[in-house]
Amino acid sequence: MNLNFLDFEQPIAELEAKIEELKLVGSEGGVNISDEIARLQKKSTKLTESIFSSLTPWQISRLSRHPQRPYTLDYIQRIFDHFHELHGDRMFGDDHAIVGGLARLGARSVVVVGHQKGRDTNEKVFRNFGMPRPEGYRKALRLMRMAEKFAMPVVALIDTPGAYPGVGAEERGQSEAIARNLFVMAELSIPVVAVVIGEGGSGGALAIGVSDRLLMLEFATYSVISPEGCASILWKSADKAADAAEAMGMTSKKLHQLGLIDEIISEPLGGAHRNPEAMSEILKSAVVRNLDILCSKPVEELLEQRQSRLMQYGNYTTG
Amino acid sequence: MNWFEKILPPKIKSGAGSGKRGVPEGLWTKCPDCGAVLYRAELERGQAVCPKCDQHMRISAKARLTHFLDDDDWEEIASDLKPVDTLKFKDRRRYKDRLNEAQKATGQTDALITVRGTIERRPLVVAAFEFEFMGGSMGSVVGERFVQGVDRCIDEGIPFVCFSASGGARMQEALVSLMQMAKTSTALTRLSRRRLPYISVLTDPTMGGVSASLAMLGDVIVAEPKALIGFAGPRVIEQTVRETLPEGFQRAEFLLEHGAIDMIVRRHEMRGTIHSLLTTLMPEWKAAPPEPAGGE
To answer: Is the ipTM of this structure higher than 0.85?
Structure first.
């Protein structure tokens, strides 16, 4: 069992391993087996297509936190130029679960902020599993204020299980830090494009996600609580996470149907982790395209549209 | 369990399902904190504060507003809004059934009441969370009632007060409920631009998405004694950090000590204190014009 593949990806993993093996044999033995390799590759593509065309919300939820999925810094490195990471909230510390800084995106200067997860164990701990503390949100806010000062748009990349539930985080005002960001981002006088690139975990995600355009990668998720959390509260059992994922409608497709997100960004076959280069290209063009539209609007219009959109969220009846 | 608790019928012991810190049903009731036996009618007259130990028990939104506002001149805002189950959400039970049950139990259509009223004849809008309605959870109706209350303040140039009591966002409305955090915060941005005061009162409990949006955005943040206030629930934190939490963690006194709130105000002094704060913040805050005398 290949740990870099999820259970439903295993058939693909097996085929890919076979192809690798054949390639090795081919290069060593001088035997021409390219036809066989091509055949297997075609088969692998077909298999991937068929598996990925009928994923359940729970499978998508697990894809959104796939161990191989590209994280914020993977995208920053591929999409932006001249990235200068800026650190610290100027009050308490530097939160490694949120990264941010100045960068060039095509012909524009932008501020980019995003949640950052770690890949190996040490890095995971260093990044606190992508769960920010108040100083992370305050750093993000500081950078967004700077963006406003220098009239640069903000690109926010969302990928977090949620805000960190810890003693220190509570002592330093986790609630206030999140609330303050929502309050300020609603009136930030520059365009903000937010993209859920992986896991959109609740208030911890929204705290950098109030935006003019909300985009989602195809296999990203966005929800009010994790499926496990929802299951353990409402079903009284974390084992019902699959049911919770289904019930909450947390996939890009469902959220687009509900009118809660603006755009779904397609992922390469097999998901972003199978081809980070291609994914970065697609993501870049989507962000640039949206910024082109937003940057051409007068600030008053931008704010008016952002705020009326925020005010429209909700379903109820009258009478 | 002492001898007295043993002879009490289970209905009284458990608080008749009205939440362990709420006011239990029945003629006589027991303070959940000090255990004093109290005459229920008298407790209600005393705003559900234990006369023996000063425990501030949970009270309904209606009772809260009744004690806080002048007794006439009430106008409920957006009371015609009703929740809908867009997702057809079903866990062990249907969201629809939970709504029906909560509506029957509380007599409210959702977890927030917003009223345009007066204190000492001065006009304001007050919103109060009904914790007994699905844990005071914030869904679409709560968000919209809050926003319409704020809008009314902007229209009339009057201040806004909100009494929070909530476990957070309403999971059964999924991402839409999360978006209510952004929605209510945006309304407060607009109120703030107009330089109209917003006083946020945190009562037991104020947690999760409500705490991390509208509750923490007051110009002045007031809390009731010993109210539980925080982002993550104590059990979640305990499971994450795997250690017992410090004494008094996430209580109002703890937040005051850490600089998160401005003051702790006892329920009996709430009306007077907020009136005084608002007259100080808004000296020009005028009494509503007197009703024209009848018959002329």
So the answer is: yes
